[in-house]
Amino acid sequence: MFRRFALILIVVVLAFNAMAQDTLPKITVTQLGRKALVSWKNHYSNITSINIQRSDDSLRNFRSIGSVLNVSATTNGFVDPKEFLPNLQYYRLFITFEGGTYLFTASHRPGPDTMRVSLTEIASAPKAETQPVVVQKWFIPSPHVYTGKDNNIIISLPDTKTKNYTVKFYEDDNTFLFEIKKVAEDYLILDKVNFLHSGLFRFEVYENKKLIEKHKVYIPKDGQATPLLDADGYEVRNGKSNRR
Q1: pLDDT tens across 6-17, in order?
Q2: For 187-193, which contacts have Cβ atoms below 8 Å and span 24 or more sequence positions?
């Protein structure tokens, strides 16, 4: 009975807040008694996963506390199962997209329950100051060579039937690994076992022997998602880059 009531309450809050709810990459965090509701509107069509993260610091030590089953829903939300009173935790979303790109939303502490605020107050209240989304500080994968859902490497190049592409792979220290002298398919899945280990690798893409891209690709360990990487592809731990 309690679970049913809680579910009804969540649905009511989401519906009531729809007018004031922020659209991704902005989120709304609302205090519901001892719990917090993270909610948002979605206009993206190429999202592959949404993970909710929590930390007692606004910038670091975030851990995933849940994920969303229906990532394409226009209005969505997640209630933190853990109770805090007062709730001084910070919440954010980790969103991944088709092609391997991803972003983190700005982090927020829970605000007051908007069900107790009149519509007039909602319309006239100033927007809370939010931190900007700093996607440019994180690693942006190549659109041509990137990590797939099973941590295999995807090579996606146009018009391979008429163009001569070569892809060379290197260790992070520039030690040569192997090359594909002729990419024969527009969409090619390269098994991760070819790289012998997980971690960061460099690659070069040539078209008719002319270098057209020089970038990096990261292969996570088996069963793990891609960690937070800095702009150069190195893992970030406790807010610091694990650069060699």
Answers
A1: 444 444 444 444
A2: 187/154, 187/155, 187/156, 188/154, 188/155, 188/156, 189/148, 189/152, 189/153, 189/154, 189/155, 190/152, 190/153, 190/154, 190/155, 191/152, 191/153, 192/150, 192/151, 192/152, 192/153, 192/219
